[in-house]
TrEMBL record:
InterPro entries: AAA+_ATPase (IPR003593), ABC_SmlMolc_Importer (IPR050093), ABC_transporter-like_ATP-bd (IPR003439), ABC_transporter-like_CS (IPR017871), Mo/tungstate-bd_C_term_dom (IPR008995), NA-bd_OB-fold (IPR012340), P-loop_NTPase (IPR027417). Keywords: ATP-binding, Nucleotide-binding, Transport. The lineage of its organism: Bacteria, Bacillati, Bacillota, Clostridia, Eubacteriales. It comes from the Bacteria. The keyword Secreted does not apply. This is ATP-binding cassette domain-containing protein. Transmembrane segments: none annotated. Pfam families: ABC_tran. Residues 16-255 form the ABC transporter domain.
Length: 379
C-alpha cells in the first residue's frame, strides 16, 4: 500500500507548524435512529483520520454530526477548545459557526457559479483583493490555474472535486471532513488526488476526517484509523497498528485480512506466544504487543494478511509444507491459494511479489512461512 505520509516526510515536507493552535478534535456522541444506533468516541490532534467501515455503519452520520447537519442525542464535540455540541449544556452550534469544511462524493458545486466564484463562495466577508489572492493561491494549489472562468459542467470529475476541495479550504476551516470524496472517480484520477490531498495537508495544517470503504485508500492518506461496525467503534489507533493488528475478527475482516487459523495457546514468554494450530498440529509463535497476557489453553484465532506470507526454501520456525491449489497473476504479484497435506478446510492466501520467484503452478509443493511479527492473535 502506498504511504503518502512517508513519501512527503522523505522529501522533508512538514505539517507540524501550527502557529500555536492545537487542532484537537474530541468526539463522543450517541444518536438513535429508527433501527440504528450510533455510539462512538475518539479524538485526534492535527492529523488525518480515516473512518473505515461497511455501508450503513454510521460513517456519514458521524461526519454530519460533526459538521452540525445532524444533532446527536447525547455527548460532546470539541474542536480546538471550542464546544461545537454538548448535549448536557444544550450547546449545538450551527454549521456556519463551526469552522468545519465539508466535501462530499458528488462534488455539490453551484452549477450557476464559475470555478472562481465557487471557491470564493464562503469568503465573501473578505475584501475584493483578499478574495482574489486567496482564490488564486487555492486554484494554484489545486492545479486549477486557467480554469477560473469555467462552469462546473465544463470540468472533468477530478477537476470538479478539486474545486470542491478548494471551496472547502477557502474559509480556512480548522477541520476538513471528506465523505468518500474520491469514490466517483476512476483509479488514476483518484490516486493523483490522494497524493495532492496529502500534499495539501502540508499547506492546510488542520485535522482531516476522511470517510472511505477502501483500506488501501485509507492507509495511503491517514495517520490514524477508526474502524466502524454497526454504529460502534471497533478499533481506533495508528494505521499500521490497526492494519497489522486488528483487535476483533470483525475488524480484521473489514480491514481485508483473509487468513485465519484456529488454535490453543500453549505457552507465553514475555511478548512471545506459542499457539498450537488446529489441523496442522504444530505450534506457531506470534508476537503480541502491550505486554498482553493470554492464558494457557485459551482458544484463540491467529490472523495474518496475505501480503505477509512468504515462500521459503526450507522448513524452519512458523513454516509449513503447503501445496498451491490456485494461482492468479496480477501486475506485480502472484496471488496463491494454498492447501495443507492431510488437512481439510484450511486454506491460506499469499500475495507474493513477482521478483521473489517464478510462477508456481497448481500442485507445486512449497514451504510457507508465517512471520511471527506479522501474525496477530484475537482472543
Ligand atoms: N436522516 C436519517 N434518518 C434515518 N436514518 C438514517 C438517516 N441518516 C442515516 N440513517 C441510517 O443510519 C445508518 C447509518 O448511515 P450512514 O449514512 O452513516 O452510513 P455509512 O456508514 O456512511 O454508509 P455508506 O458507506 O453506505 O455511505 C443507516 O442505517 C442509515 O439508513
Amino acid at each position: 500500500m502506498v504511504d503518502y505520509q512517508k513519501t512527503a516526510a522523505d522529501r522533508g515536507a512538514s505539517s507540524l507548524e501550527t502557529g500555536g493552535v492545537d487542532f484537537m478534535l474530541e468526539v463522543n456522541i450517541k444518536k438513535e435512529l429508527p433501527g440504528f444506533s450510533l455510539d462512538v468516541a475518539f479524538s485526534i490532534e492535527r492529523e488525518i483520520l480515516a473512518i473505515l467501515g461497511p455501508s450503513g455503519c454510521g460513517k456519514s452520520l458521524t461526519i454530519q454530526c460533526i459538521a452540525g447537519l445532524v444533532r446527536p442525542d447525547q455527548g460532546r464535540i470539541v474542536l480546538n477548545g471550542k464546544v461545537l455540541y454538548d448535549g448536557q449544556l444544550g450547546i449545538n452550534l450551527p454549521p456556519q459557526s463551526r469552522k468545519v469544511g465539508l466535501v462530499f462524493q458528488n462534488y455539490a458545486l453551484f452549477p450557476h457559479l464559475t470555478v472562481g466564484e465557487n471557491v470564493a463562495f464562503g469568503i465573501q466577508h473578505l475584501s475584493k483583493a483578499e478574495i482574489k489572492d486567496k482564490v488564486t493561491i487555492l486554484l494554484q494549489k489545486m492545479k486549477l490555474q486557467g480554469l477560473e472562468g469555467r462552469y462546473p459542467h465544463q470540468l472533468s470529475g477530478g477537476q470538479q472535486q478539486r474545486v470542491a476541495l478548494a471551496r472547502a479550504l477557502a474559509p480556512e476551516p480548522e477541520l476538513l471532513l471528506l465523505d468518500e470524496p474520491f469514490s466517483a472517480l476512476d483509479t488514476q484520477v483518484k490516486e493523483q488526488l490522494l497524493y495532492e490531498l496529502y500534499e495539501l495537508h502540508n499547506y492546510y495544517r488542520g485535522s482531516v476526517l476522511f470517510v472511505t470503504h477502501n483500506v488501501a485508500e485509507a492507509y495511503s492518506l491517514c495517520s490514524k484509523m477508526a474502524v466502524y461496525g454497526g454504529g460502534k467503534l471497533l478499533q481506533f489507533g495508528g494505521k499500521q497498528d490497526v492494519v497489522e493488528g486488528p483487535a476483533t475478527l470483525e475488524a480484521a475482516k473489514l480491514l481485508g485480512v483473509e487468513n485465519f487459523l484456529q488454535g490453543i495457546v500453549t505457552w507465553q514468554e514475555g511478548n512471545e506466544v506459542w499457539v498450537l494450530v488446529k489441523g496442522l498440529d504444530r505450534e506457531v509463535k506470534a508476537v503480541v504487543g502491550d505486554n498482553k497476557k493470554i492464558a494457557k489453553n485459551q482458544p484463540v484465532i491467529l490472523g495474518i494478511r496475505s501480503e505477509f506470507l512468504r515462500i521459503t526454501a526450507s522448513s524452519s520456525e512458523n513454516t509449513f509444507s503447503a501445496t498451491v491449489s490456485q494461482v492468479v497473476e496480477e501486475v506485480t504479484n502472484y496471488t496463491y491459494c494454498f492447501n495443507f497435506p492431510d488437512v481439510q478446510d484450511l486454506h491460506l492466501v499469499a500475495r507474493i511479489p513477482k521478483q521473489e520467484g517464478a510462477l508456481l503452478n497448481p500442485g507445486s509443493a512449497v514451504y510457507l512461512n508465517l512471520p511471527q511479527d506479522k501474525l496477530f492473535i484475537i482472543t
